[in-house]
Amino acid sequence: MLALVAVVVLAACSTVSMTGRKQLNIVSESEILSASLTEYQSYMKTAKVSSDKNATAVVKNVAQRIAQAAESYLRTSGQTADLQNYSWEFNLVDDKQLNAFCMPGGKIVVYTGMLNLIGNGKDRDDMLAAVIGHEVGHAIAKHGNERASQQLLAQLGSSVLGAAVANKSEKTQQAVAVAYGLGAQYGALLPFSRKQELEADYIGIVLATLAGYEANAAITLWEKMSAVSQSTTAEFMSTHPSSTTRIAQLKKDIPEVKKQLGVK
Fold first, then answer.
1. What's the pTM value of the predicted model, to 2 decimals?
2. What pLDDT does 191 receive?
3. Which of 52, 97, 200, 247 has the largest count of CB atoms under 10 Å?
4. Helices marked H in the chain — which ranges?
5. 110: number of CA atoms within 13 Å, CB side?
6. How far, in Å, are 117, 216, 253 from residue 130 at the CA level?
7. pLDDT of 125-142, one tens digit each?
8. Does 135 qualify as catalytic in the annotation?
């Protein structure tokens, strides 16, 4: 049975193209997209969409540019088949949480709390691009699929592994729900591992740079997040790397990303 587990895991390994990291993938893309869409639609039924037209326009403009950068990256990296999986939607939700998310399939939500933290300075759009780029990074790196696969594998008893992998739709739904932590008590924050979070940071600055934004604004963003976290534990930061860790890594990554993309 251990041999079967090993075969399943090895056969299900894929690679995050932008970073080269190996990841577990035993849940089909169609199942992830279906379950994620169901969760998203359920969430939006109770979410309070912002009535601020100007703020909404800001979010949609930045999100659209990041989405276009993501699609451009997928094309140039030979992942054109993945383009059919995205049906982009951009929303600003009236909620004080410092939060944002992008579901598999391209459903993007930014909370007004995050927008308020960013403020209306000259680097507003650049910081917002860092936030949205990070969330879209989770989607195009298929972190949701990876997380659900990890949850599913953890749930499977060794005696039923073979059967469960062959016919796993119900368990997949449960795994997706756990992976995304969706529900009233969690909002819509994706509780990814520190490794996935730092990877999404990296992909985020690549997408932001490709979209024409200043990647260094990501550092400013996390400095703001760090200041807030001194007084309260922001939902956006729970189970995530510390701001100090993220800032240090961004300072290493941003110059290299700019060099690779030919941006000063």
1. 0.81
2. 45
3. 200
4. 2-11, 29-46, 53-76, 112-118, 124-140, 143-155, 161-166, 169-180, 194-210, 217-229, 243-261
5. 29
6. 13, 9, 13
7. 999 999 999 999 999 998
8. yes
